[in-house]
Structure formats: structure tokens, C-alpha cells
């Protein structure tokens, strides 16, 4: 029994040890398996996060590059047609190669960012083929095969997408317009007061003005009009102002509100672009009006000054505001002698109630009200902003070209001495430098024209950017319809100013070449291969020097911002 008991204990001990070892092995394998699973899970999560990050980067890159690459494809198509028609110059051929390299770089970056490179390459096999064919053309290996000329029409994924996804492109154009807002108008009333007055003292006048105007606008247009008092701004002095001086504050309130129209009320003297004192002025381009209470309270010599509480001031102010809002709504002046809000405004001492829109004016307002309120773009990308500007300008061509006809922007350089001096001074030095003759006279006409166009466009964009001329001045998520129109007017005005500067310098250079230089002077320069220098050669030389002058003028001279804004004629010259 004892022996058997000992054997039983020993067996039990052996079994216990074996079981413990087995448990340890099982636990070890389980722990190892768990660690491995955790490691693989972490790697899988990391890999998934990396894949998602790459996908987002790829998506954002495609969205950002789609517009620029599509435009490059259009340029390539133009160069292709040019080559078929008359051949390409050396510069244009290099431009073709540069565009192709950009296409290759675009595809390479997208391939690197793609999570599944093989699958991405399979899906874009047509793009790869289109990229390699121009490569052979660039190295002149397949020049004999004329059919390869067609390869430049489909040289990038962007252009192929542009041809196959026109519906999406037009949908984006439609979305960029924004949804048509509800038929109601929101007007922000901004007080800009000088040190001579206080905002509290102006509040009763502002509230009464709103009470007088709001019912008449709602009744005449058949849509609700709401007026809101916004945070006032304090002016540092009481000096005379132009309506454009309040444009920054008004457009910022319009973007922050957002308001469809901003009415600025100020107590300082207001003058028009023609230096004439006015009681109020409107800008149908920016949907902004400015009213001066100083003009309304001024009386002839020998009579007591009117106060804002006077009945004549109140009713005349309401009539003036209705008149200006009528201009913004699209109403023209009525004939002198006719009754109605849109008759030419003048202060009438005996006026006992504000004017009201007549039947004809109300009919016009009901027609114009279809364009009110205006569309807005919220948080748009650069491409969406560009599309939005183009659409709004196309829809309101009259609003774009009216100020351009009034402001004579092509003569703006004459009012900007710093810009003109910085452009003319180096040009006068270059015209007497013989080396410039070598470049200008041996340059091809197409190259000179392209250089001039690029310089004028570059100078325009630089001046607008450096002076922050686009509205609103600060970056905002909201871009209103008429701010976009105003921006188009600003760009076209600056572009015309640069063209005017180009023509002015070019004309001056031609005068020097024709009437100052001795006859045959340029043609005797030793490095020239031209036995005769004709009029076209002199024009090309003048254009080349003028191009350099425009560039230096933009870089060194800049603009006098206040003069530019005043010259743009965004506001009407009279009430």
C-alpha cells in the first residue's frame, strides 16, 4: 500500500509537472499569437491610415489640378493647330515640351500617391500611352508618322477627363452660381461718424430713416425688405471723403452679414469723382450707397443750420435713400419735371413727405426684382471662385462695361506718376542701348507679341494682388454676386491701364526712333544682319522696350490705391 501510495504521489507529481509545462507552452503560444495579432493589427491600421491619407491627398490634388491642367491641354491643342497651319517657332516648340513635362510630372505625382500603383496604372493606361507618344515626338524618333500629331489632343488625364466628363464640369459651373436665395432683401445700415458726433446721437435719425424707407421698398418691389443697424465705425477726422473711401468697410459688412446691400450714413462732406459735393451716391456695381447728413443739414448763408430732427431733413433723407436704392435695383433717372422717386434729387425745404415710386417705376421694379437678391458663393475654392466670377460677369455684361466706359481706364497711367515714371525711365535708357536693338530687331513677331501679352497680364495680376484691390479686401468665406462683378471691373480696368501704359511707352519709343535717331542709325549696328530696318522692325523694337517698361513699372512703381479706386467709377457721379 505504501509503495502504491508512493507511486501514486510520484505519478501525480509527474502529471502535475507535465500539465504545468503544457499550460506554460499554451500560454506562451497564446501570448505570442496575441502579440503577433496585435502587431499585425497595428500594421494593418497604420497601413489603412496611410492608404486613406494617400487617397485624400490624391483626391485633393486631382481637384486642385483639374482646372490648370485642363487649360494647359487647351493651350496644347492650340499649339497643335498652329503647327498644322504654319509650323511652330523655337519658343513654341520648347513650350510644347515644357507642357508635356508638366503632364508627366502630374501623372508621376499621382502614381506615387496612389495606394495601389498597379491598379492605378491599369485604370490610366490611355494616359500613359498618351504621355509616351509625345515623348517620342519630343526626341524626334517618330517624326515621320504624321498620325502622332493627334496625340497632342489627348496628352493628359485631365484633358481626357475634360472630354469625357463634360456633364460633371457643367454641374460644377451650375453649383458655383449658388442657389437662388429667397425673395427678400437684407440691407445693412452702417454709421461712419466723425469725432464731432456720437453714435448715440445719430441713432434716432437712423431708426426713423429705416421706418420711412422700409414700407415703400417692400410695397414697390412686392418682396420683404429688412434693414439692420450694424456696428458703427469711427472716423479719425472730419475731412471730406469720397464714396470709395467707405467701400472696404461696406464690403466687409456685406460679407460678414451677409447683406444684399449696405447703406453708409456719415456726417462728413461727400464729394463725387468729379469733385462735386453731393448728398449721396450709389454704386450699382458693389450694391453700396453713401449718404452725407452734412449736405442735408447745410443751409444758405444767414439761415439757421438744420438739425437731424428737422422734418425737412427726415423726409429729404428718406427720398434720397429711396432714390439711391432705386439705382441699385436698376432704375434709371426719369425725365426732369416728372414726379417719382427716380426724378433727379434736390433738397426741397417745403417737402412734407418722402417721394413714392410712381406706377411706371413700380412696373420696372417688379421686372428688376427678379435679379434680387443676388447669389452668393460660400467657401469656394480658387477654381470655383474663378468660375463664379466668369458666370456673374457674363450674366451682367452691362454692369461690367458701364463703368469701363465711364472710367477711361486706359488713361489711368497719366494719373499715376509713380507708375509712369518707373516705366518710362528705364525705357528711355534702353532705347539708347544698342544691345537692345540686337534682341528687339532679331525677335520674331509672334515671340514679341506673346512676350508683350504675358507681361501685361502679369503686371495686371501683380498690381491687383500687391494692392489688394479685389473685394472684399480681407479673405472671407462669402463672395456675393456683385462683389464678383466689381472684381471683374477692377481687373479689366487695371488690364486696360497696363495696355494704356504699354501704348504710351511704345508711342514714345516710336517718336524717338522716327524723329530723334539719325536716318539709318540702327541698321549700321555691326551685329545686325539686316541691311535695311523697316517700319515693322522699329514697331517690334518699340513694343519690346515697352514690354520691359510695363514690367518695371509694375514692380517698381506700383499704384496709388486711393487714386485707382476713385478712378474705377464704381459709384455714379450724381444721385
Summary, kept brief:
The protein is an alpha/beta fold and 575 residues long.
Q: Helical amount among residues, as a percent range?
A: 55-70%
The low-confidence runs, each spanning 5 or more residues with pLDDT under 50, are 1-24, 26-31, 38-42, 135-170
Strand content: 5-15%
Describe the global form: globular
Arithmetic mean pLDDT: 77
Rg, rounded, reads 36 Å
Please describe the biggest sheet, giving its number of strands, its sense, and whether it closes into a barrel: 6 strands, mixed
Number of helices: 19
- Span between termini: 128 Å
Structural class determined from secondary elements: alpha/beta
The topology string of helices and strands comes to HHHHHHEHEEHEEEHHHEHHHHHEHHH
Tally of strands: 8
Describe this structure in words.
The protein has 575 residues and is an alpha/beta fold. 61% of the residues lie in helices and 6% in strands. The strands form two sheets. Strands 1, 2, 3, 4, 5 and 6 form a six-stranded mixed β-sheet that branches. Strands 7-8 form a two-stranded antiparallel sheet. The chain is globular. Mean pLDDT is 77; it is low at 1-24, 26-31, 38-42 and 135-170.
